[in-house]
Design a protein that fits this description.
Length: 116
């Protein structure tokens, strides 16, 4: 199982970024996917979850509702996180995660920095 995030970077407040998490080594469409984030000296926070396989069920942390959108492309084995109206408090390392047979799998994370 491998999860590889990309798309992070430096963005000004109010800007947008789209993160990607490319999955391999398992049947991607069968599993829900989740984005987490962790800011320095803060606990890891669940950001958004998307169901399998259609992705019609999504859930978001209150802090990102209305600004972030999680989606998935089962043909590309990829889950996305579209982030709009970014705030400095969104600065964190963003990681994707799945759980297979009770075992959690994580990507290495991608840094998002929101600063002017």
């Amino acid at each position: 199982v491998q999860l590889v995030e990309s798309g992070g970077g430096l963005v000004q407040p109010g800007g947008s970024l789209t993160l990607s998490c490319a999955a391999s080594g398992f049947t991607f469409r069968l599993y829900p996917m989740t984005w987490y984030r962790q800011a320095p000296e803060k606990e890891r926070e669940l950001v958004a979850t998307i169901s399998n396989p259609s992705g019609t069920t999504t859930n978001y942390a209150d802090s990102v509702k209305g600004r972030f959108t999680i989606s998935r492309d089962n043909n590309k084995n990829t889950v996305y996180l579209q982030m709009n109206s970014l705030k400095p408090e969104d600065t964190a390392v963003y990681s994707c995660r799945t759980n297979i047979g009770g075992v959690p799998y994580w990507g290495q994370g991608t840094q998002v920095t929101v600063s002017s």
